[in-house]
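Model it.
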Amino acid sequence: MKYIRNFAIIAHVDHGKSTLADRFLEIAGVIAPGKHAEQFLDRNPVSRERGITIKLAPVRMTYEYSESGIQYSDEKGNEYRILHTKYYILNLIDTPGHVDFSYEVDRTLSCVEGVILLVDATQGIQAQTIANAYKAIEKNLAIIPVINKIDLPHAQIEETKAELIEFLGVREEELYLVSAKTGEGVESLLKAVIQKVPPPQNPKYQIRNPKGRLTSKQIKNSNFENSNLSRDSSFVLRALIFDSYYDSHRGVIAFIRLFAGEIEKGAKLRLCAQNKDFEAQEVGVFSPDLTPCERLTGGEIGYVITNLKDIHTVRIGDTIVKDKSTVSPLPGYKKVKPMVFASIFPTDPSDYANLKKALEKLYLNDSSLAFSPIYSKALGAGFRCGFLGLLHAEVVCERLEREYGLDLVLTPPQIEYEPSKSQKEVLEPLAKIIIVLPQQYMGAVMKLCKDHRARFVTMDNKNRIILTYEIPMSEMISDFYDNLKSVSSGYASLDWEFLGYKPVLASKMTVLLNGDPVEEFSEVVVADCAYEKAKGLVKRLRDVIPRQQYEVKIQAKYDGKIISSERLAPFRKDVTQKLYGGDRTRKDKLLTRQKKGKKRMKMVGRVEIPKEAFLKLFRKS
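Modeled.
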């Protein structure tokens, strides 16, 4: 363990995490400079196209590090210093920066002893910088503050230094200046990781020994690396599953961090949570592809091929132990509560089973996703899915379509209210938001928050403005983020976390098409916002629903009353075109007959809502 360093790169979105990882991989010789795609660890096509990291990515590097040893002088007075060369195993985990994927950061921080906190010199400290730094501090991790993009002409290096010194309470000499793009200062930073990030330690924990509990002396000296107990690995093995995915030939492949013990190919293992035994078909490391090795030992990060075909068996956060071990499991992870809900339906009803399998496989790789079966009269069988945010919902839908060849409909996002003791009230979910912005945009941003029913909490006005608000989740998932970027010219950043519930007057708003309710567009709405929301939704439906052969009435019903209505005019064929001259009554008879026919069509027909209508509503465009 002495020569292992486990660390992660954390930062706000687009501050250069993946580019810095590229330079590390080049310095360590994992990849050749100039002969790989940029952001090498972002291998998902969706991630590459959007230019953001959406999944944590582990990689193992071997780095040759020389340090000064004994200094001596010869008879002539010449001074010499002996250099000691050592090889270090560096396990790096690159993390996402967007708030919707913050759960990936939480899982990463449970597997490392230190982090590089990266800050863009052109943007300074942002919301996710603050949030991720607090997470690292809570876990007592070593933090190396780094200022990136120092090569850019508009870099505000001194201002960013002052912000970091104020925020972290560090000295200026503890800050590292790098350019991940050019490589300037990167190797010095990699050496700092070896110097400042502590090596992994075997945790002190109690073993439930069938022959009795350990003595206090054994517990006190429970550094199993130096203890006789380490010779019996069946007692000490504990590995945390921090990620996984499904392979059709090899079953579930679990990404693990070993906290004690060792795993080798053919080892008999057990999953604590499911009490499921299995045999390790293969173990290995990420170099960056899956690379088999003889064994994984305490402190290392790697993978194990379980050959388990039931994807429900392996859960992220579970602990792997020896098959007959009574070691207590690791703490695991806090269950993430989805806050944004939308329904996913296959456009082809026969793809329902394929959609179910795809969601189950994706869940292995994204445990923050929640889903349950649902049936819609309009769209058929599908799934009600819970997401961490709007971007998370879009990415999941796009991955399902690309990776599993599905054609899907995603309904407009909603939040879920909890029932209240009062019949007229419901419990509305609230979020705590932190907005970081320059001074000149403070007035516009505060007005925006007020317009979205946000309640002011605190303001920090040191190097830049940091506003804290409490805002209803229903407001935050509407157009709040887009408007925030607009009023701040893109300079404001946002981070949020679930806060709790508060009682509000609310009721269900039902959308009617020709008098028939459409559940896909119906939702619970706060009374104060009902008229405005109904008017906007009805108008947008009128714009996205194509014209039919008959008139379509679009209405919004709230508390038993129609509060907004729009009319979609029908196509009209000129049935009188063939008539030339004659009495006007001849034309009137044909028009009356056409009107009756359209009325019958309206009674037996159903308004056609194409997939594009749902997509336009969801993407707010």
